[in-house]
Amino acid sequence: MDEVLSKLIALHDLDQLLKELESPEYQELGFEVKETRKKELLKRREELVRQIPEQVYRRYERLRKRYGRGIAPVVGGVCMNCFIQLPTAVVSGPDKNQRLETCSNCGIFIYLA
Amino acid sequence: MLEKLLREDRVILDMQATTKEEALRELLKPLQFDPSKEDIILDALLKRESIGSTGIGKGIAIPHTRSLVLDQVYLVVGRSKKGVDFDALDKKPVYLFFLLLAPPQDPGTVYLITLGKIAHLSRKLARTREYLEIDDPKAFVDYLLKLLKEE
Predict the structure, then answer these.
(1) Taking the domains of chain B in order of start, what are their residue ranges?
(2) CB contact under 8 A, A14 and B47
Protein backbone atom coordinates (compact mmCIF):
# COMPACT_ATOMS: atom_id res chain seq x y z
CA MET A 1 0.00 0.00 0.00
CA ASP A 2 1.16 3.53 -0.78
CA GLU A 3 2.82 4.98 2.33
CA VAL A 4 1.01 8.33 2.18
CA LEU A 5 -2.29 6.52 1.63
CA SER A 6 -1.75 4.41 4.75
CA LYS A 7 -0.93 7.57 6.75
CA LEU A 8 -4.10 9.24 5.45
CA ILE A 9 -6.15 6.20 6.48
CA ALA A 10 -4.56 6.29 9.96
CA LEU A 11 -5.33 10.02 10.16
CA HIS A 12 -8.93 9.43 9.06
CA ASP A 13 -9.38 6.65 11.65
CA LEU A 14 -7.90 8.85 14.37
CA ASP A 15 -10.10 11.83 13.41
CA GLN A 16 -13.14 9.57 13.49
CA LEU A 17 -12.16 8.19 16.91
CA LEU A 18 -11.74 11.72 18.31
CA LYS A 19 -15.12 12.71 16.87
CA GLU A 20 -16.87 9.60 18.16
CA LEU A 21 -15.50 10.12 21.68
CA GLU A 22 -17.47 13.38 21.78
CA SER A 23 -20.76 11.84 20.67
CA PRO A 24 -23.41 11.40 23.39
CA GLU A 25 -24.31 7.95 21.96
CA TYR A 26 -20.76 6.74 22.54
CA GLN A 27 -20.41 8.42 25.93
CA GLU A 28 -23.60 6.70 27.11
CA LEU A 29 -21.86 3.33 26.70
CA GLY A 30 -19.62 4.26 29.63
CA PHE A 31 -16.22 3.18 28.32
CA GLU A 32 -13.21 4.64 30.07
CA VAL A 33 -11.93 7.81 28.39
CA LYS A 34 -9.12 9.67 30.16
CA GLU A 35 -9.05 13.35 29.19
CA THR A 36 -5.27 13.63 29.71
CA ARG A 37 -4.70 10.71 27.35
CA LYS A 38 -6.86 12.41 24.75
CA LYS A 39 -4.31 15.25 24.67
CA GLU A 40 -1.58 12.67 24.01
CA LEU A 41 -3.63 11.38 21.12
CA LEU A 42 -3.80 14.90 19.69
CA LYS A 43 0.02 15.04 19.89
CA ARG A 44 0.19 11.76 18.00
CA ARG A 45 -2.08 13.30 15.39
CA GLU A 46 0.41 16.15 14.97
CA GLU A 47 3.22 13.60 14.54
CA LEU A 48 1.18 11.78 11.92
CA VAL A 49 0.45 15.00 10.07
CA ARG A 50 4.20 15.74 9.93
CA GLN A 51 4.65 12.49 8.00
CA ILE A 52 2.18 13.53 5.30
CA PRO A 53 3.28 15.88 2.46
CA GLU A 54 2.00 19.38 3.21
CA GLN A 55 -0.08 19.78 0.04
CA VAL A 56 -1.75 16.39 0.63
CA TYR A 57 -2.62 17.31 4.20
CA ARG A 58 -3.96 20.73 3.15
CA ARG A 59 -6.21 19.03 0.62
CA TYR A 60 -7.31 16.44 3.24
CA GLU A 61 -8.36 19.28 5.57
CA ARG A 62 -10.17 21.16 2.79
CA LEU A 63 -12.08 18.00 1.92
CA ARG A 64 -12.83 17.33 5.59
CA LYS A 65 -14.36 20.79 5.95
CA ARG A 66 -16.45 20.24 2.85
CA TYR A 67 -17.53 16.61 3.23
CA GLY A 68 -16.81 15.76 6.87
CA ARG A 69 -13.98 13.44 5.75
CA GLY A 70 -10.89 13.71 3.61
CA ILE A 71 -10.75 10.15 2.32
CA ALA A 72 -13.45 7.67 1.36
CA PRO A 73 -13.56 3.99 0.44
CA VAL A 74 -14.46 2.85 -3.05
CA VAL A 75 -16.71 -0.21 -2.87
CA GLY A 76 -17.68 -2.12 -5.99
CA GLY A 77 -16.18 0.67 -8.07
CA VAL A 78 -18.38 3.32 -6.43
CA CYS A 79 -16.96 6.24 -4.45
CA MET A 80 -18.65 6.12 -1.05
CA ASN A 81 -18.48 9.92 -0.78
CA CYS A 82 -20.29 10.96 -3.97
CA PHE A 83 -21.68 7.55 -5.09
CA ILE A 84 -20.36 7.91 -8.62
CA GLN A 85 -19.02 4.87 -10.48
CA LEU A 86 -15.31 5.34 -11.09
CA PRO A 87 -13.51 4.30 -14.31
CA THR A 88 -12.47 0.62 -14.41
CA ALA A 89 -8.84 1.59 -15.00
CA VAL A 90 -8.77 3.31 -11.60
CA VAL A 91 -10.55 0.68 -9.53
CA SER A 92 -9.28 -2.60 -10.93
CA GLY A 93 -5.68 -2.06 -11.96
CA PRO A 94 -2.94 -4.37 -10.64
CA ASP A 95 -1.48 -1.50 -8.61
CA LYS A 96 -4.57 -1.17 -6.39
CA ASN A 97 -3.82 1.26 -3.53
CA GLN A 98 -0.17 1.41 -4.61
CA ARG A 99 -0.67 5.07 -5.57
CA LEU A 100 -2.54 7.88 -3.89
CA GLU A 101 -5.66 8.45 -6.02
CA THR A 102 -8.59 10.84 -5.89
CA CYS A 103 -12.18 10.47 -7.05
CA SER A 104 -12.54 11.94 -10.53
CA ASN A 105 -15.93 13.37 -9.57
CA CYS A 106 -15.72 14.80 -6.03
CA GLY A 107 -11.92 14.95 -5.65
CA ILE A 108 -11.79 13.09 -2.34
CA PHE A 109 -8.82 10.81 -1.63
CA ILE A 110 -9.86 7.22 -2.20
CA TYR A 111 -9.06 3.80 -0.74
CA LEU A 112 -10.00 0.88 -2.99
CA ALA A 113 -11.73 -1.61 -0.72
CA MET B 1 -27.78 -7.94 14.89
CA LEU B 2 -25.42 -9.34 17.54
CA GLU B 3 -26.90 -12.79 16.85
CA LYS B 4 -25.91 -12.50 13.18
CA LEU B 5 -22.37 -11.43 14.06
CA LEU B 6 -21.69 -14.41 16.35
CA ARG B 7 -20.01 -17.11 14.27
CA GLU B 8 -18.28 -20.30 15.37
CA ASP B 9 -15.33 -19.63 13.08
CA ARG B 10 -14.82 -16.31 14.84
CA VAL B 11 -14.55 -17.82 18.32
CA ILE B 12 -11.13 -18.53 19.86
CA LEU B 13 -11.37 -20.57 23.04
CA ASP B 14 -7.67 -21.08 23.76
CA MET B 15 -6.08 -17.66 23.41
CA GLN B 16 -2.34 -17.75 24.00
CA ALA B 17 -1.67 -14.01 24.26
CA THR B 18 -0.18 -12.60 27.45
CA THR B 19 -0.13 -8.88 26.58
CA LYS B 20 -2.68 -6.40 25.24
CA GLU B 21 -1.08 -6.10 21.81
CA GLU B 22 -0.70 -9.88 21.48
CA ALA B 23 -4.35 -10.34 22.44
CA LEU B 24 -5.53 -7.85 19.82
CA ARG B 25 -3.37 -9.50 17.13
CA GLU B 26 -4.69 -12.93 18.07
CA LEU B 27 -8.29 -11.70 17.94
CA LEU B 28 -7.73 -10.28 14.44
CA LYS B 29 -6.38 -13.58 13.07
CA PRO B 30 -9.72 -15.33 12.27
CA LEU B 31 -10.67 -12.41 10.01
CA GLN B 32 -7.71 -13.13 7.69
CA PHE B 33 -7.09 -9.56 6.58
CA ASP B 34 -4.02 -8.93 4.50
CA PRO B 35 -1.06 -7.74 6.64
CA SER B 36 -1.23 -4.05 5.66
CA LYS B 37 -4.94 -3.94 6.49
CA GLU B 38 -4.40 -5.81 9.77
CA ASP B 39 -1.67 -3.34 10.81
CA ILE B 40 -3.98 -0.36 10.16
CA ILE B 41 -6.78 -1.94 12.24
CA LEU B 42 -4.39 -2.91 15.05
CA ASP B 43 -3.05 0.65 15.11
CA ALA B 44 -6.60 2.04 15.39
CA LEU B 45 -7.42 -0.43 18.20
CA LEU B 46 -4.27 0.50 20.12
CA LYS B 47 -5.02 4.21 19.73
CA ARG B 48 -8.48 3.59 21.22
CA GLU B 49 -6.91 1.61 24.07
CA SER B 50 -4.41 4.41 24.70
CA ILE B 51 -7.13 6.75 25.97
CA GLY B 52 -8.61 4.23 28.36
CA SER B 53 -8.81 0.47 28.50
CA THR B 54 -11.83 -1.28 27.05
CA GLY B 55 -11.32 -3.87 29.79
CA ILE B 56 -14.59 -3.10 31.56
CA GLY B 57 -13.77 -5.21 34.62
CA LYS B 58 -14.86 -8.59 35.97
CA GLY B 59 -12.69 -10.41 33.45
CA ILE B 60 -14.22 -8.96 30.27
CA ALA B 61 -12.93 -6.58 27.59
CA ILE B 62 -14.62 -5.11 24.53
CA PRO B 63 -11.88 -3.74 22.25
CA HIS B 64 -13.45 -1.84 19.37
CA THR B 65 -12.73 0.54 16.54
CA ARG B 66 -13.91 1.81 13.23
CA SER B 67 -11.57 1.90 10.27
CA LEU B 68 -11.75 3.04 6.68
CA VAL B 69 -10.32 -0.31 5.55
CA LEU B 70 -13.30 -2.25 6.93
CA ASP B 71 -16.20 -3.10 4.65
CA GLN B 72 -18.63 -4.43 7.27
CA VAL B 73 -19.13 -4.97 10.99
CA TYR B 74 -17.07 -7.87 12.39
CA LEU B 75 -17.18 -9.57 15.77
CA VAL B 76 -14.59 -11.98 17.15
CA VAL B 77 -14.98 -13.60 20.56
CA GLY B 78 -11.86 -14.80 22.37
CA ARG B 79 -11.29 -16.57 25.66
CA SER B 80 -8.07 -16.95 27.57
CA LYS B 81 -8.11 -19.49 30.38
CA LYS B 82 -5.03 -18.01 32.04
CA GLY B 83 -6.13 -14.40 31.60
CA VAL B 84 -4.46 -11.41 29.95
CA ASP B 85 -3.17 -8.24 31.58
CA PHE B 86 -5.32 -5.78 29.63
CA ASP B 87 -5.01 -2.82 32.01
CA ALA B 88 -8.69 -3.35 32.87
CA LEU B 89 -10.64 -0.90 35.01
CA ASP B 90 -10.48 -3.22 38.03
CA LYS B 91 -6.82 -4.07 37.22
CA LYS B 92 -7.73 -7.77 37.09
CA PRO B 93 -6.87 -10.15 34.22
CA VAL B 94 -9.23 -10.40 31.26
CA TYR B 95 -10.56 -13.85 30.32
CA LEU B 96 -13.18 -12.97 27.75
CA PHE B 97 -12.84 -10.62 24.77
CA PHE B 98 -15.37 -9.25 22.32
CA LEU B 99 -13.54 -7.58 19.43
CA LEU B 100 -15.90 -5.35 17.47
CA LEU B 101 -14.84 -3.69 14.21
CA ALA B 102 -16.85 -1.46 11.92
CA PRO B 103 -16.52 0.61 8.75
CA PRO B 104 -16.62 4.43 9.03
CA GLN B 105 -20.32 4.61 8.32
CA ASP B 106 -22.82 1.92 9.06
CA PRO B 107 -26.52 2.26 8.44
CA GLY B 108 -28.63 2.31 11.57
CA THR B 109 -25.51 2.76 13.74
CA VAL B 110 -25.18 -1.02 14.09
CA TYR B 111 -21.75 -0.53 15.67
CA LEU B 112 -22.89 1.56 18.64
CA ILE B 113 -26.03 -0.51 19.20
CA THR B 114 -23.98 -3.72 19.11
CA LEU B 115 -21.42 -2.27 21.52
CA GLY B 116 -24.27 -1.53 23.93
CA LYS B 117 -25.67 -5.05 23.57
CA ILE B 118 -22.25 -6.61 24.20
CA ALA B 119 -21.83 -4.47 27.34
CA HIS B 120 -25.25 -5.69 28.52
CA LEU B 121 -24.39 -9.32 27.71
CA SER B 122 -21.07 -8.94 29.55
CA ARG B 123 -22.85 -8.08 32.77
CA LYS B 124 -24.77 -11.38 32.52
CA LEU B 125 -21.61 -13.32 31.67
CA ALA B 126 -19.72 -11.88 34.62
CA ARG B 127 -22.30 -13.23 37.08
CA THR B 128 -21.52 -16.93 36.70
CA ARG B 129 -18.33 -17.22 34.65
CA GLU B 130 -19.73 -20.39 33.08
CA TYR B 131 -18.00 -19.27 29.88
CA LEU B 132 -14.73 -20.54 31.33
CA GLU B 133 -16.01 -24.11 31.25
CA ILE B 134 -17.23 -24.41 27.63
CA ASP B 135 -14.68 -25.89 25.23
CA ASP B 136 -16.60 -26.23 21.98
CA PRO B 137 -17.07 -23.16 19.72
CA LYS B 138 -20.62 -24.12 18.73
CA ALA B 139 -21.62 -24.70 22.36
CA PHE B 140 -19.97 -21.37 23.22
CA VAL B 141 -21.98 -19.49 20.59
CA ASP B 142 -25.17 -21.28 21.70
CA TYR B 143 -24.46 -20.29 25.29
CA LEU B 144 -24.04 -16.63 24.30
CA LEU B 145 -27.22 -16.75 22.21
CA LYS B 146 -29.11 -18.27 25.14
CA LEU B 147 -27.95 -15.45 27.43
CA LEU B 148 -28.91 -12.87 24.79
CA LYS B 149 -32.46 -14.20 24.69
CA GLU B 150 -32.83 -14.19 28.48
CA GLU B 151 -34.23 -10.97 29.81
Answers:
(1) 2-149
(2) yes
Helix (H, G, I), strand (E, B) or coil at B90: coil
Sign of CA dihedral B124, B130, B132, B136: negative
**Residue positions of B annotated with a catalytic role:** 64
CB contact under 8 A, A12 and B68: yes
Q: Does B67 sit within 8 Å of A111, measured CB to CB?
A: no
B119, B56 contact by CB (below 8 A)? yes
Question: How far B140 CA sits from the closest chain A CA (Å)?
Answer: 25
Question: In this predicted structure, what is the pLDDT of residue A96?
Answer: 85
Confidence of residue B107 (pLDDT cuts 50, 70, 90): low
More confident residue, B141 or A35: B141
The answer to whether B29 and B62 are in contact (CB under 8 A) is no
Q: What is the pLDDT of residues A50-87, one digit of tens each?
A: 999 999 999 999 999 999 999 999 998 999 999 999 98
Candidates B41, B68, B115: best to mutate against A (most CBs of A within 10 A) is: B68
Fold of B2-149: Mannitol-specific EII; Chain A (3.40.930)
Give the distance from residue B13's alpha carbon to the nearest chain A alpha carbon, in angstroms.
Answer: 25
Give how far A104 is from chain B: nearest CA, Å: 19
Pick the closest to residue B115 from B129, B133, B102, B131 (CA basis): B102
Kindly indicate whether the ipTM for this predicted assembly is greater than 0.85, answering yes or no. Answer: yes
pLDDT of residue B108: 65
Question: Considering only CB atoms, which chain B residues are within 8 Å of A34?
Answer: 51-52
Contact: A10, B44; criterion CB under 8 Å: yes
**Residue A28 DSSP SS3:** coil
* pLDDT > 80? residue A93: no
